[in-house]
Amino acid sequence: MGKEVKLFIGPNHPGMHGNSSVHIYVEGDTVVKARLVPGFLHRGFEKLMERRNWFQNLALIPRICVPEPDINEMVFAMGVETLAGIEVPERAHWIRMIILELARMAAHLMAMGGIGGATGLYAMPQWTLADRDRILDIFEKITGARIYHMYIIPGGVRKDLPEGIEEEIEALLNYFESRRTEYENLLLKNRVIHTRTKGLAVLTKEEALKIGVTGVGLRATGVPYDIRKVDPYARYADVEFDVPTTTEGDAYARFSLKYLEFLQSIRIIRQCLKKMPKGPVNVRVSRGSALRWRVPAGKVYSHIECSRGEYGYLIVSEGGEKPYRVHVRGASFPQGLYGVEKLLPGTRIEDVALWLGTMDFCPPEIDR
To answer: What is the dihedral of CA 47, 49, 51, 54, to 10 degrees?
Structure first.
């Protein structure tokens, strides 16, 4: 009879993405039981939002997912705009798309770098994190901050793009495309990556749909579900892009789809730069103090596509200066909670970090 041993993956383990821990119980080299333990840093966002007024929440919500903070600004602003009947200026829609796609690219680079750390291919995180910093340079010039931007606000964006930034974004896209062959040779054609990820952590279409997985986890099973296509927001209906899919459902499929989506984001941003009109970038939503602004009573669910799948906010207003209720539909909640506890058993110890990395979740989206 085998002996069961309890091991701790995280919160400081390099195989654990974010501030949470996975307690695994193993017999030999095989995981027989797993339990997610979140809440080591960011937590309780939903109740915190109910104690802050509408504009104060703009500084709080980006922290729900640090690698891709702008999604929270966008989905919150969309919900508030629907409740308040606010029409966003045309130029702001296109600027928002540029910001969101740059954030998606930065998140995918971080996720791809994590795969390198879990396979011993350390050139990968060196490349991806260095190139992610180039995107953060652009964010800093546009918003004044590298991580938490507070740039997308109800009514549009906080300020217009600085002069000359379009040319810098274009140069950055050209740079990424110039490295395409290098990236593909290192990330997609590498024998180490193939050996370690193909056939690993297979998620079937039935399992993905049952527990509510979206994003690359679902698209890797052959389902082309993308909110930007099925329920377009901003001006995604006016740009051309593909939704990459595959049917293997394994770690390599999810990992490779991130790279293919990275290329589609370049395609989308190029179109935004060409189609973006001149004009105002925000509308005044309050005639008095923004800190005393009241949003009309109502309930709304807004959702967008983030790097991990469908990300949504259910916002309830009673006509006051603060939200009555905010519920966050974190994109990584299904694979981060249900997936860890239901699907991780059966995995070998050395593959746990790869399982967590390719499922790609932000712990605060779970313990929110």
So the answer is: -160
48 to each of 19, 39, 195, 366, how far by Cα in Å?
Answer: 19, 15, 45, 15
> Per residue in 7-28, is it b (16+ CB within 10 Å) or e — as a string?
eebbbeeebbbbbbbbebebee
CB 71 within 8 A of CB 304: yes
pLDDT one-digit tens code per residue, 204-255 = 899 889 888 898 989 999 999 999 999 999 999 999 999 999 999 888 998 8
pLDDT digits (tens, 9 = 90+) for 78-106: 999 999 999 999 999 999 999 999 999 99
Nearest CA-CA partner of 333 in 11, 38, 105: 38
Q: What average pLDDT does this structure show over 57-78?
A: 91
Contact 340, 34 (CB under 8 A): yes
First to last CA, the chain: 40
Token reading at 86: 């606010």
Shortest CA distance to 313 belongs to which of 150, 155, 82, 99?
82
Q: Token pair for residue 66?
A: 């640090």
Sheet holding 298-306, edge to edge: 298-306, 309-317, 325-329
pLDDT above 60 (res 337) = yes
Residues 140-182 pLDDT 10s: 999 999 989 999 999 999 999 999 999 999 999 999 999 999 9
Bridge partners of residue 93, in order along the sequence: none
CA distances in angstroms from 220 to 41, 208, 232, 336, 359, listed in the order given: 31, 10, 21, 17, 11
Q: Name the pTM for this structure.
A: 0.92
Question: In the structure encoding, which two tokens stand for residue 348, read together?
Answer: 């070998």
Return all residues near 182 (Cβ < 8 A) that are at least 6 apart: 127
Q: What is the 3-state secondary structure (H, E, C) of 300-337?
A: EEEEEEECCEEEEEEEEECCCCCCCEEEEECCCHHHHH
Closest Cα partner for 316 from 324, 307, 306?
A: 324
The alpha carbon dihedral of 175, 357, 115, 62 has a sign of positive
- Of 56, 116, 101, residue with least CA distance to 270: 101
